[in-house]
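Ticket opened by: R.M.
Priority: normal
Category: complex prediction / small molecule

The reporter submitted a protein together with flavin-adenine dinucleotide and asked that the result be attached to this ticket for the collaborator who will pick it up next week. Submitted input follows.
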Amino acid sequence: MSVTQNKRVLISGAGPVGLIAAYRLAREGVPVTVFEKEDRLLDDPRAATTHPATLEMLSELDLVDDMARLGLICREFRFWDRPTGDLVANFDHELLADETDFPYVIQCEQFKLASLVYERLLAFNHVDILFEHSVIDLTQDENYVTATVSNPDGEYFCTGAYLIGADGGRSAVRKSAEIAFEGFTYPERFVVFTTPFDFQSGGDYCYRNYFADPDEWSNLFKVSGDGPPGLWRAVFPTGIDESDDDVANESAAQERMQKFFPKTGGYNIVHTNIYVTHQRVAESFAKGRVFLAGDSAHVNNPIGGLGLNCGIHDAMNLTEKLLRVWKGEADLGEMVRYDIQRRTTNHEFVQAQTIQNKKRLEAKDPLARAQNLKELSEIASDPARAKKFLLRSSLIASVRRAETLG
Ligand SMILES: Cc1cc2nc3c(=O)[nH]c(=O)nc-3n(C[C@H](O)[C@H](O)[C@H](O)COP(=O)(O)OP(=O)(O)OC[C@H]3O[C@@H](n4cnc5c(N)ncnc54)[C@H](O)[C@@H]3O)c2cc1C
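Result attached by the on-call engineer:
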């Protein structure tokens, strides 16, 4: 079988990035088909932190009020010295009040954002979202791109005008387009334990906390879950030689959590997730009529909560340009700017910051460690330096930088 729709945009992947790209296009009348490998939207607990620059973009799509309703508004984040328990630095987004309408992050789980967008997409007759449909290959020529799609009935070809690969870190679109994914993979994995235990009952924690520790760094976040009292997620590196079972079995999980935050009685651990973590960027985000966005284009460690945020920035940057091309207001060469702007800022901001965040938390050398913590403390206590730090961590600086490129 073969389906051809000359002006249709094809999207591989109904994760948050694919759905947001679909929604932006659909609102402008562009016919879209989204192919999703799974039989439903993914609901594993990954991204939650949505930064000010991303909230600005999502407000253009009228999504922020719903995210705030489903999530938690969080003005501050804190760095701690885990061995001593000392608070090293508190950063308050209020310092950005004259830079953005959103001087805070919203902690809204990515599956909630994806569901919000999915529900809105259902209202459009010109959008198809096809579950259990995997894109497995592609070809393209001057005018069209054709995806080979596999579903439970077999394989077929679907031809459209453009194809967006938003199909995650193992992107079939990226591989089929023969785009290299350059970078490295960490030898350790990251484990996330989710529990309803209220950490604020025992410490001066805010909803986003980063702990430096030469033996075992950690992060601690709050999300709203199904509503009050919410859930906390504690993130740790695994040992390089630990198997998944060594990390996830009940007694090992309890031991890690008790070592992190000793308390009477065991932890109620409602989810355990273990992630292989990489720092990689595609060598190009645009190849002819094929574009990459989100994790298919770049992956990074989650310290700082940047991966999905940058995926959303990709979706917004890409669709802004693609809409002009689709409407005949610009030629395909316009998409080179998408590649330059988003790939460069990914290297300069996301890769640089997440690598630095991890190094800062895990530093083992006592002198380097002391220097890191002193620097963070000094930055946080100087409003001008703290503001500059927040402009980077909130990704406002990366959006401004992108505007100067290409
Ligand atoms: C522990 C952890 C915490 C994180 N926290 C944050 C955070 O706080 N803030 C942040 O910004 N980022 C965070 N991230 C990163 C974030 O989760 C990812 O960047 C985000 O999921 C990327 O979204 P995506 O839509 O590009 O890809 P995905 O969410 O991976 O979605 C891809 C979709 O494509 C589908 N698919 C795959 N292959 C095919 C195919 N061949 N055909 C069709 N469909 C296919 C998949 O089933 C999936 O539905 C975190 C990551 C981890 C692991």
